[in-house]
Amino acid sequence: MMTNDAIRYTKIPITHGSGALPAAGFGTLIPDPVATKQAVKAALETGFRHFDCAERYRNEEAIGQAMQEVFKAGAIKREDIFVTTKLWNTNHRPERVRPAFDASCRRLQIDYVDCYIIHTPFAFRPGDEQDPRDEHGQVVYDSGVTLVDTWHALEDLVNGGRCKSIGLSDITLERLKEIVAVSRIKPAAVQVETHPYLPEWDLLDFCREHGIIVQAFAPLGHAMQPRVVDDPVITSIAQRIHKTPAQVALAWAVQRGTAFLTTSTTLSHIRENFEISALPEDAMREIREGIKTSVRFNSVVGTGVPGFIPRSK
Ligand SMILES: NC(=O)c1ccc[n+]([C@@H]2O[C@H](COP(=O)([O-])OP(=O)(O)OC[C@H]3O[C@@H](n4cnc5c(N)ncnc54)[C@H](OP(=O)(O)O)[C@@H]3O)[C@@H](O)[C@H]2O)c1
Q1: In whole angstroms, what is the distance from residue 214 CA to residue 197 CA?
Q2: CB 255 within 8 A of CB 284
Q3: Of 9, 57, 112, 141, which residue is the catalytic one?
Q4: Confidence of residue 79 (pLDDT cuts 50, 70, 90)
Q5: Which DSSP category does 229 fall into?
Q6: Is residue 266 lining ligand 1, measured as CB closer than 6 Å?
Q7: Burial class of residue 61, CB neighbours in 10 A (0-12, 13-18, 19+)
Q8: Is the CB of 220 under 6 A from ligand 1?
Q9: Of the four, 45, 63, 144, 281, which is 20 to 30 A from 239 by CA?
Q10: How does pLDDT run across 114-155, given as a tens digit for each residue?
């Protein structure tokens, strides 16, 4: 019999690729490598089987070490986990894609990547400087490459066999449609900011129709104000069903068909975020219809520059 708790083990079948993506994902945007390693090990031991990484986070080595230590203990194998990592903006030129992919695999100590994602649709000046700026402090973009060129280079990676599926991130619906229209291999996943304050229903509908999985980043609103976990609709559901507000927001993400990527360096939060249970249908409806607050917390989608937007409380 399917229990309410089974939701935490949800796997979303991959239409454009093979295998399935565990809906409960652990994000690794953690600045400190020691904290990264501890958090990844704790997440694996707690039950998370999907890890979201990126060359831009500069901590792939720490994640690789954490995974190796857990694999060596014997209970969890590489095949049991789903690893996403991302191509940074400075590597959009097709000739830079394979070296960037290989470098991520090397740092993560893995032979294959389950999903390789273009981190943002914005190409920056190619090179080792991840945040190239001109003398006025403005980002230096690269007009010599298009997103379609980069996408085709990712398609070639899939042909090589070490990249199981490919995707996009921080993309608008319009640009996603452009890629879907010209692609030989369609995106397996798109990773965007989405939570009860930014539900992105239109994007989700399009993705459902085209067999593309939505990975929700900042599913708890990055703990920023206005706090998703303090929303009265969320807190009243949490009280009613004896779960925490974070668990309500994360269960909502899975039940509407997305994967979520949550991050924590706090052991109790890591456990809490995995121990989700299904919400009753009326709670799903209340969140959709009762929450009117609308907030985008991260400005990356407009510029390619990562950053949660500081807000006064
Ligand atoms: N593609 C992109 O451009 C992009 C951009 C941003 C993020 N991402 C990915 O998405 C992942 C998640 O993003 P995010 O960090 O914004 O996720 P989030 O889970 O919405 O926010 C994380 C914050 O919430 C707190 N938190 C976690 N669990 C909690 C709980 N149960 N109760 C209360 N607070 C809790 C954490 O603090 P504690 O550490 O104290 O728990 C942390 O400050 C990133 O790691 C990264 O992999 C991708």
Answers
A1: 16
A2: yes
A3: 57
A4: very high
A5: G
A6: yes
A7: middle
A8: yes
A9: 45
A10: 999 999 999 999 999 999 999 999 999 999 999 999 999 999
